[in-house]
Amino acid sequence: MKNTWLRKLLLSCLISSTFLTPALAEKSIKLANALSKESHYGVAATALEESLKQALPEKFKVEHFANSALGGEREVIEGVQLGTIDAAILSTGAVLNFVPQVGVLDIPFLFKDLAHARSILDGKIGQQMLEEFPKRNIIALAWGDQGFRHITNNKLVIKTPTDTKSLKIRTTENPVHIMAFKHLGILATPMAWPEVQPALQQGTVDGQENPISVIASMKLNQVQKHLALTGHVYSPALVIFSPSFYNSLTSAEKNTLKIASQDAAKAMRKFVDEIEQSGIASLKEAGMIVTEDVDKQAFANIVKEIYPEYYKRYSKDLIEQIVAQ
Ligand code: PAF
């Protein structure tokens, strides 16, 4: 008698958890990014969520951690490796410290324009590079980008490399970038992104470098007076996942995640294309002094002097293949 009663109770619990509360079946995805909801990363994060929702309603629940809520990009990559963070949208700023091969894409003055860079990332070289990530305990499913990086500062108008000498500029924690800045005579100061705005405000550094997408969406005009369109290096971005999350999925779910990551990357690139058009005018309106006639060739000529160092690190063949495409 007692047994029958207990069995009925267990059965009804099982039925209600299976049929009446589908929300319990949702897999939560803790998704980190360094920027605001209104940025290219924010737009990409929303596109990822929407794409998953459309393909597999109620399967995934995306929890958004924007504005570096889970730490700087280096910490986020470590969290993804450990599985304490399920996913992230981030720049390659710190990535080469984990997947060294990616550093070749961070070489200044390597790409002619966005179309050139994107054709490399979407082609054999970029896709093969994504396959290197699992060896470092990271799953990388799609390449997005931020645009080309430009220098902002609070001290002076930059037109030639001489103007940048002795400026203290925050850089990402990226040895490939740092080598080039040092060669230009810049006091390169690597710093995690969450520390950058206070450092600019307090004058600990004179400036920083980032694409228009970041400068405009993070309103860096509030802490920086000058913007010089140096376009010195392309800034790729990635959609990554932790192996512990990824490997818990069925192969059909993995496929859906790949498509959602590609949708996120597409949304990111679209945002970048639009803000590259409109961002400079709005930064000028907001009071920034924008220098458009930068002698980019003079900067490139100096940086090209250290290309032999890059050849040693990444193979001359590969670099020449990228340049020639
Ligand atoms: O400068 C950086 O660290 C990156 O470009 C940023 C702003 C965190 C976006 O990935």
TrEMBL record:
This protein's record includes keyword ATP-binding: no
Signal peptide per UniProt: 1-25
InterPro entries: DctP_fam (IPR018389), TRAP_DctP (IPR004682), TRAP_DctP_sf (IPR038404)
Recorded superkingdom: Bacteria
Annotated keywords: Signal
GO annotation terms (biological process): transmembrane transport
GO molecular function: carbohydrate binding
A GO cellular component annotation in the UniProt record: outer membrane-bounded periplasmic space
Protein name: TRAP transporter substrate-binding protein DctP
Organism the protein comes from: Pelistega suis
Lineage: Bacteria, Pseudomonadati, Pseudomonadota, Betaproteobacteria, Burkholderiales
Gene label: dctP
